Amino acid sequence: DAIQRPPKIQVYSRHPPEDGKPNYLNCYVYGFHPPQIEIDLLKNGEKIKSEQSDLSFSKDWSFYLLSHAEFTPNSKDQYSCRVKHCYFGTTPDS
Asked: Which CATH architecture describes the domain 8-85?
């Protein structure tokens, strides 16, 4: 019987952000178990269209997943990643 583990979350852009220059926003979620999880990328608190990698697992049976979306950074928009997992329900936006 596997132990429940909370997801760890990293949010970062593919390239150093520059105002007005297209980029990719990544939300890497890892180290979690069980594998059922929801990941949303948000712009100013609203869900944006994103793509997700296939769910993968490590030798210790913890899982990892990458969600990403194109975005154009600017000073007025705020981007975040919301994760829902049974270990804690919903995370505060990261």
From this structure: Sandwich (2.60)
